[in-house]
Design the sequence.
């Protein structure tokens, strides 16, 4: 379970630091207050490092010095949106649009891009950023933003890489673009290209926390969990309250069955980012996923419903709700939640994006719970049509579970192999693999993979359901 998709978070992080140097004859900023500009620049610096709280403080101070500073209002909207304060974010963006009339063309275009993104108008955002690149071909942030739109909205990683590289061509020291290249290569399954990019990101920005956390993200994808935890902790040595590292530590520890530790890390994340309906929704979502890991489906359902009640746009809560309902055989409600998810994806103009992967996989899980395995496999095929390399692993895992349920063990093994090619060391996939070998009577492979999995789960909590399933498979315990 991952509560944030990093490229989606990055999508609203495209900065405009290049506004510090305007074109000949064009003002750098439309503000009459040098102090407002100075404070804005400080806010941009913190934003570039993903330090959301600090960025908000400086942007608020900038606006106190000049309440008509349109660009500062727009940037503030991005920060608030990243903090899950969506209502406040849109209100701030409305102020940006109101004051943009007297701004430069460059500022107007940036505000247009940001505003359209907050409204899920991706076509409008593409049009605005393309205009930026037409008028300002050396605008490195615009190349970065265009790449992120290709990655998130169009699932076109090749195009995203081209634009990230263009940003690096404009400025070889542009750390954010190097980071984006690292994530894109990793999403394409090219870890040997992605990890060196993150190491370069660290060299370019050695005093910031995010480069170590970004390297850790790629180590997680490579199945190197201990090394990833070490890198997240390295980032916290640089900045002890770096919110993103606590979020991702929670995700990794949840994967490893260390549920109480995960809960503590998630709580630190929420405490740092601050309370808002969006963050309250995420707290309920965390509670739901922890309950799922313990197979406490009724408790999970209650938590996810509360999460959706706080923020109906929280797709992680909707996805968790579907899973908890399906496991309780409450199929009418599960189907209703899937329909709600499809409407939300449509509202966000993501019906042709990788967001559809979640929709089809959820549908497959409900069909599997109904024992409609052939129909569930069709849903998996639909998910594959929207997937990129990185999202294929979850689909392959679902296919493996379905083929196992159908008794098609060779096909299940093939699906596990495909999933592990993309997501090596995935505990969920290794557990399916252990089940397959145990069912087919291969004691050697059952023991080999099972004990490797036990090592991954060596510090798991005693109520972590997957580990107890594994212990039963290996004949080591009856579980709890």
Sequence:
């Amino acid at each position: 379970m991952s509560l944030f998709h990093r490229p989606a978070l990055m999508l609203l992080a495209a900065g405009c630091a290049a506004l510090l140097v305007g074109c000949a004859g064009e003002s750098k900023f439309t503000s009459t207050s040098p102090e407002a500009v100075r404070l804005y620049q400080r806010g941009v610096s913190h934003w570039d490092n993903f330090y959301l709280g600090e960025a908000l403080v400086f942007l608020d101070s900038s606006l106190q010095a000049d309440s008509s500073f349109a660009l500062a209002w727009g940037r503030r909207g991005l920060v608030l949106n990243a903090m899950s304060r969506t209502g406040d974010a849109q209100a701030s963006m409305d102020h940006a649009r109101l004051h943009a009339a007297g701004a430069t063309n460059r500022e107007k275009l940036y505000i247009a891009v940001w505003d359209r993104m907050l409204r899920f108008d991706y076509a409008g955002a593409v049009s605005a950023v393309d205009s930026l690149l037409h008028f300002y071909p050396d605008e490195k942030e615009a190349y970065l933003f265009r790449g992120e739109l290709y990655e998130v909205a169009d699932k076109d990683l090749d195009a995203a890489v081209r634009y990230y590289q263009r940003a690096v061509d404009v400025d070889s020291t542009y750390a954010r673009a190097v980071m984006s290249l690292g994530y894109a290569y990793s999403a394409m399954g090219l870890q040997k290209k992605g990890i060196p990019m993150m190491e370069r990101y660290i060299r370019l920005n050695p005093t910031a926390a995010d480069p170590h956390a970004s390297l850790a993200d790629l180590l997680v994808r490579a199945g190197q969990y201990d090394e990833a935890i070490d890198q997240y902790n390295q980032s916290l040595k640089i900045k002890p309250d770096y919110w993103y590292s606590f979020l991702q530590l929670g995700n990794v520890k949840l994967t490893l069955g260390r549920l109480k530790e995960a809960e503590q890390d998630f709580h630190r994340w929420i405490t740092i980012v601050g309370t808002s309906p969006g963050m309250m929704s995420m707290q309920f979502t965390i509670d739901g996923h922890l309950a799922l890991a313990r197979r406490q489906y009724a408790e999970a359902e209650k938590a996810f419903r509360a999460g959706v009640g706080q923020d109906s746009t929280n797709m992680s809560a909707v996805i968790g709700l579907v899973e908890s309902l399906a496991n309780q055989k409450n199929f009418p409600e599960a189907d209703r939640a899937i329909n709600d998810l499809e409407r939300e994806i449509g509202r966000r103009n993501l019906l042709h994006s990788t967001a559809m992967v979640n929709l089809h996989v959820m549908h497959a899980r409900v069909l599997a719970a109904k024992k409609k395995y052939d129909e569930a496999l069709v849903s998996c095929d639909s998910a594959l049509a929207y997937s990129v390399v990185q999202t294929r692993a979850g689909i392959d895992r679902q296919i493996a579970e379905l083929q196992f349920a159908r008794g098609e063990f060779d096909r299940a093994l093939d699906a596990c192999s495909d999933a592990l090619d993309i997501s090596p060391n995935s505990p969920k996939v290794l557990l399916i693999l252990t089940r397959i070998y145990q069912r087919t009577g291969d004691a050697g492979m059952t023991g080999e993979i099972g004990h490797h999995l036990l090592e991954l789960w060596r510090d798991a909590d005693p109520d972590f359901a997957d580990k107890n399933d594994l212990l039963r498979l290996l004949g080591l315990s009856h579980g709890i």
The longest helix spans residues 389-406.
